[in-house]
Amino acid sequence: MPARHRDLAIACVLGAALLWLYGGILSSLARQWASDDNYSHGFFVLPLAVYFAWERRGALLDAPRRPSIAGVFLIAASLVVLLAGLLGAELFLTRISLIGVLAGIVLFVWGRVHLRILTFPLAFLILMVPLPAIIFNQIAFPLQLLASRAGELALSVAGIPVLREGNVLQLPSRTLEVAEACSGIRSLVSLITLAIVLGYFTEPRAGARTLIALAAVPIAILANAARVAGTGLASELVSPAVAEGFFHTFSGWLIFVVAFAGLLGVQRVIAGRDPGAGRASVVQTREAEA
Hints:
This protein is mainly alpha-helical. Helices cover 75% and strands 3% of the residues.
C-alpha cells in the first residue's frame, strides 16, 4: 500500500477510535461553547487548528517516518488524566486529555519530526478548552475589581459622587454592579485568540508573534475598564437605560472592535520595525520551521 494511502487508513481508524472514546466529551464541549459566551470562540479554534495542520501537509509528507515508543507513554499518561477527570467529574481534565492523546498518537505512529511540525496546531487546541471554574474565578474577580476601580476613577474625575464597595458602584441615581460578565474575561480570551491568529498570518518572527499575543492582555483590560467607566458616566449623565439592554450589549461589541483595532495597531508598529515582514516571508518562515 502506498504511504499516502496507508496514512489515510491509519488516520481514519484512529479518528473513529477517538470519536468513540471522546464523542460524549466533544458534544458536551460544543454545548458549552453554544451556551457560554466566555467560550463561544471555541467554534473557531478547531477548524483553524485543522487549517494550520493542513498548511503543513507538504512538510508532513516529506518528513521521515520514525515511530517512537515514547508516544505510547504519552497516550497512557493522557488516558490516566482522562480517567481522573471522569472519576472526579472534572471536565477540564477529560477535555485537555484529548490533546495529549492526539500528540501521543502522532509521536507513536509517525515520530518526533511529525510532532514538531504539528506542535502549533496541537497547542492551539488548548484555547478551545474552558478553564476550570476555580482558575476562571481567580482571573475574573480581580478583573471585576479593576474595572470597578476604573469606573470609580472616571466618575470621580467627572465630578459625580460615587462610592465603591468591592465591585458595586453607588451613584446618586442608581447602583451599578460590575458582574462577572462585565469583568472583561470574555473579551480577554477572545482577543488573545485573535492575537495568536493575527500573529500567525502576519508575522514571520516568533518573537513578534509573542509580543502581539502579550499585547492583547493589557489592551483587553484597558478596553473593558473604559467600557465600565463609560457605562457609569452615560448612566448618570444621559439615562440609566444606557447601563442595560441593547445599549449595554452594543457598547460591549463596540469596545471589542476598538480593542481589536488597537491590536492591529500594535501589529503594524511591530511590522514597521522590519519592512521585510509580510505574507511571503511568513510563508517562507513557516516552511523553514516545518
